[in-house]
Amino acid sequence: MPWKDTMRRVVRQSKFRHVFGQAVKNDQCYDDIRVSRVTWDSSFCAVNPRFVAIIIEASGGGAFLVLPLHKTGRIDKSYPTVCGHTGPVLDIDWCPHNDQVIASGSEDCTVMVWQIPENGLTLSLTEPVVILEGHSKRVGIVAWHPTTRNVLLSAGCDNAIIIWNVGTGEALINLDDMHSDMIYNVSWNRNGSLICTASKDKKVRVIDPRKQEIVAEKEKAHEGARPMRAIFLADGNVFTTGFSRMSERQLALWNPKNMQEPIALHEMDTSNGVLLPFYDPDTSIIYLCGKGDSSIRYFEITDESPYVHYLNTFSSKEPQRGMGYMPKRGLDVNKCEIARFFKLHERKCEPIIMTVPRKSDLFQDDLYPDTAGPEAALEAEEWFEGRNAEPVLISLKHGYIPGKNRDLKVVKKNILDSKPTANKKCDLINVPKKTPDMASVQNEAKLDEILKEIKSIKDTICNQDERISKLEQQMAKIAA
């Protein structure tokens, strides 16, 4: 008997039994977007209470769109993009502590961190706030620390995980000898003291990044050869999706203190799309979105058997190319909305709203416990020194009002600053004391010139890209 049937027969008391999904009307979608066709299993979309960001097709480099949430309807071909990467963008992630800061990882082996203007882009953005260079192969994963300001994790096809202090542009932790094969995904735990990873070698690892130790691992968490995913839950358990030896899709729940056997293991179906898990720690609901599927299945995790309880499935006609997931503070609490997804089609982005049906118009405090807010609990230096802190929680009782974000400032540490300033050799040879200053002024002027030239070349590329897409449109019209 399929596991779903056994679950359906037992009527379990849960306030989430009747959660239902609904796509918004056409005029509330984002239309005419050329969603990226790059073969990579990331979600291609990142959302926060101000903006939706979508990785798009771009000739001659990598680009993504950043649209204010209210900018629905048809998106003009000439709409400005974030286009500083020289290779396709593979992953994007909004900073949880600043709704105007987004990180991107690319095939060009770099991570870039961008500051988006408060009201969105009016011109294409080619200059990131900082470029983080340290990977030797393409960077497919970027993930901000959940509770610490300016700490960013990246993972690349060089099988290395690097943790950066974005405020200084430095790579402070490099885990380059823990994975022998490609890293499929990385997830922070609730307070950011541990990470868990799923890898092509079929292992799930729990890692303490500051001690640079593997705390727990499970070989063959799923025996199939297709990609796995592993995420931390709020209670410290690990949830995984993967494939059986017979290519059936599976989901499993693990306790890192004893990974011999899973707490629960369920087989789902035989589709071949990777299951991307999206987790809400406030309601303990996991939403599974298969790449190429046209449905979202959702489950409630509890501490009673069978631990992973099937709730329902949202079905539609069109397959999804990617998916964005809104943080809790971006939801409409007056409508009992408990999740909002941004489903990517081939040419559009469609919001899908998950609601708990309630008759009352009052604030439903059982649906909205205090949730992680935008304030960081720690500064980067404190975390790197070994401190941990839980997320700073906020109440949603009166809705979430976005505050003013402070600009991301990067102060690069200058190795020259720490060198002794006295140079006795110079004093011995009677060189005028101003010469070094003159030389450095000339160097700075040259550097400025080069940077200006690079910027103008990048701008030209962006403009040409827009021109090419216009010409492609004209060609398509003539061909039609």
UniProtKB/TrEMBL annotation:
Keyword Repeat recorded: yes
WD repeat copies, ranges: 82-124, 132-174, 176-217
Name of the gene encoding the protein in the UniProt record: CORO1C
GO terms under biological process: actin filament organization; neural crest cell migration
Species whose genome carries this gene: Odobenus rosmarus divergens
Entry's family note: Belongs to the WD repeat coronin family.
Positions of the DUF1899 domain: 9-73
Keywords, in A-Z order: Coiled coil, Repeat, WD repeat
GO molecular function: actin filament binding
Pfam families in the record: DUF1899 (PF08953), WD40 (PF00400), WD40_4 (PF16300)
Protein name: Coronin
